[in-house]
């Protein structure tokens, strides 16, 4: 069976322009990686999914490199089940129906991660997919396990997925269906 990566929910997300992205960057004093900006504009930040010939859908899954961090108990494979987009200034009736807001994701989750990361998606357990937005981690994609949150906050609960957002999408594979 073959699977293809698609964006079936794109129409339920508001259009995102380059100006929307630049205003977001200004509001939060950060620079987003060009390939992530392209994703926001081209796919409205909607979640990727896999579809097969029988038009069955499944979410993408990714391999996380935990090294010897305690959070490795979360497992080596994680599923992306929601993505965040830009809703500020858009006529969106429900952020839940049309995805999740990048602006909100910062304020809801900033107590979970060190500076220099931006939540861009999550799984069903509210663990976060993170994009590096500081010089050291720029453009890299990480996974933050909410199963093991250290105090004080550090990178002990954050595993590495990909060096770029493009590589992140390329590394996606279809999650097994029950």
What tags apply to this protein structure?
178 residues; alpha+beta; SMI1/KNR4-like; 3-stranded antiparallel beta sheet; 12 strands; 20% helix
Short description:
The chain has helices at about 20-30, 35-45, 100-110, 165-170; strands at about 5, 50, 55-60, 60-65, 75-80, 80-85, 100, 115-120, 130, 140-145, 160, 175. The protein is α+β, with helices and mostly antiparallel strands. A hairpin with a 5-residue loop joins strand 8 (about 115-120) and strand 9 (about 130).
Give an account of the 3D structure.
It holds the Pfam family SMI1_KNR4. InterPro entries: Knr4/Smi1-like_dom, Knr4/Smi1-like_sf. By secondary structure, the chain is an alpha+beta fold. Helices cover 20% and strands 25% of the residues. It is built from four helices and twelve strands. The longest helix is centred in the first third of the chain and has 11 residues. It starts with a strand and ends with a strand. The model has no long low-confidence stretch (mean pLDDT 89).
């Amino acid at each position: 069976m073959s699977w293809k990566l698609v964006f079936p929910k794109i129409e339920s997300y508001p259009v995102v322009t380059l100006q929307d992205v630049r205003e977001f960057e200004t509001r939060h004093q950060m620079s987003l990686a060009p390939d992530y900006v392209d994703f926001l504009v081209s796919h409205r930040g909607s979640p990727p999914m896999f579809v097969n010939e029988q038009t069955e859908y499944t979410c993408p899954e990714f391999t996380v490199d935990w090294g010897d961090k305690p959070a490795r108990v979360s497992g080596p494979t994680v599923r992306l089940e929601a993505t965040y987009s830009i809703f500020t200034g858009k006529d969106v009736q429900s952020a839940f129906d049309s995805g999740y807001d990048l602006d909100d994701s910062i304020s809801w989750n900033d107590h979970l991660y060190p500076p220099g990361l931006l939540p861009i998606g999550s799984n069903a357990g509210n663990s976060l997919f993170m994009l590096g937005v500081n010089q050291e981690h720029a453009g890299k994609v990480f996974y933050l396990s909410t199963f093991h949150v250290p105090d004080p906050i550090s990178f002990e609960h954050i595993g590495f997925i990909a060096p770029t957002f493009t590589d992140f999408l390329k590394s996606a594979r279809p999650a097994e269906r029950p």
